[in-house]
Amino acid sequence: MVVAPDSLWQYLTELFEHEYDHAVVYADAEQTVLHEGPIRLLATGWVELPSGRLLSPSAVHHVDTE
Q1: Domain span at 20
Q2: CA gap 20, 52 in Å, rounded
Q3: Within 10 Å of residue 38's Cβ, how many Cβ atoms?
Q4: Number of domains in the chain
Q5: What is the residue-level pLDDT of the chain in tens, covering all 66 positions?
Q6: Which domain of life is it from (predicted)?
């Protein structure tokens, strides 16, 4: 069986990407809020905001999804 690399990448991306309707993205341990609302957490660790803006994994300390 032969699998095209593009379809494999798309399948793996879908496994590791998550969308949250309500999340809080923090910049540091002191709880500085970068964003509150819907987000898409990409497989690469980047956080995509509804505006299309991306937050780097190095800029995000943690994300609360509850």
Answers
A1: 5-64
A2: 15
A3: 13
A4: 1
A5: 565 667 777 777 778 899 999 999 999 999 999 999 999 999 889 999 999 999 999 999 999 998
A6: Archaea
